Amino acid sequence: MAHGLLKGKRGIITGALNEQSIAWKVAQLAHAEGASFVLSNAPVAMRMGEINKLAESTGSKVVPADATNDADLEQLFKEAQAALGGPVDFVLHSIGMSPNVRKGRKYDDLNYEWYKQTLDVSAMSFHRMLQAAHKLNGLSEGASVVALSYIAAQRVFPDYGDMADAKALLESIARGWGYRLGKEKKVRVNTVSQSPTMTTAGAGIKGFDGFFGFAQEMSPLGNAPAEACAAYCISLFSDLTRYVTMQNLFHDGGFSTTGVTPEVMAHFAKSE
To answer: Is 232 a catalytic residue?
Structure first.
């Protein structure tokens, strides 16, 4: 049931690849809640995905942009403002990629050129995006910006590799820009630390099934599905959260604050 939480609001949603994507579900729900927005992804990702189908169903314009290219990001905000009729009220950063993880390079044997790519695509792109928005006055007064993160920014998950470093940087960037944009225009900047989620990106991580199962048994509410994450993002875009900023918000069913559970202990209990 829609509540009109984003009625009249304008936004930019990045990272929608296919129906599994959290960004895809955010777009669907934002549309249902009354928002108009521009969709964006890297040209190579757009060739792999189905973003045009999403654009058609939500009445949205698609603007290709390489999130590591400053000129592309500036063009994204220019085209978004032209298409939507003014500065945007919300932005979703749902961008992440690690060549080291994809190609099986362990944390103690990283390819450093790939490492730079990981940091640029997965974290620096967030800084670039907000710098472009700031330069072009692309965010409205009281706008809300959300980037998707993961608890590996705070805890060690060995197979998450250099993506953990990228997420830690992403969260720091949110605080750095959150302070500046908050002082200037009451803009909120937050990260959402989501449960392991069955997306195309998640499936590319070695041992993901183990990640998912462990988190499921450690979380009192179970893993948060993509649809629930989308709803949480919508609440952060809405006027209901006007004083929430510079936070890393765990959306993980309680995983982040649970020490141990009987279900997990049972795997190690000795049979009598």
So the answer is: no
**pLDDT grade for 270, boundaries at 50, 70 and 90:** confident
CA–CA gap between residue 110 and residue 112 (Å, rounded): 6
pLDDT at 86 over 80: yes
State the angle between helix axes of 163-185 and 125-135 in degrees (0 to 180), rounded to the nearest 10: 20
pLDDT of residue 198: 75
Q: Is 150 a catalytic residue?
A: yes
In this structure, is residue 3 part of a structural domain? no
Q: How much is the CA Rg of the chain, to the nearest whole Å?
A: 18
Which one of 107, 112, 115, 150 is the catalytic residue?
150
User: Total structural domains in the chain?
Assistant: 1
Find the Cα–Cα–Cα–Cα dihedral 214, 220, 226, 231, rounded to 10°: -160
Q: Are 91 and 146 in contact (CB under 8 A)?
A: yes
Read off the CATH number of the domain in which 145 is found. 3.40.50.720
- For residue 198, what are its two tokens? 């069955």
Annotated catalytic residue, options 112, 160, 179, 243? 160
